[in-house]
Amino acid sequence: MRILSVTIAVLPLMASFAHAGDPAVGENDFKKCKSCHAITVEDGTAIQNGGKTGPNLYGIIGRTAGSYEGFRYGAELVAAGGAGLI
Hints:
single chain; mainly alpha; globular
């Protein structure tokens, strides 16, 4: 019975992985982000045009939270980055 309860509890969480790696889903999801963010390579090549009020999302994987140069972050986000939030 316990295994069934755990399975039922975890199953909805796994549903989000159904679209993992689907470029069309990712592009659609990014529409919410692009009003503030762009994805631009260091050489200036735009992968995805977007706004400039938020930091560039190129290379965000593994980047310390609140650490992108040229943007002002709230104290809480900077503190979270200092505590190891990536």
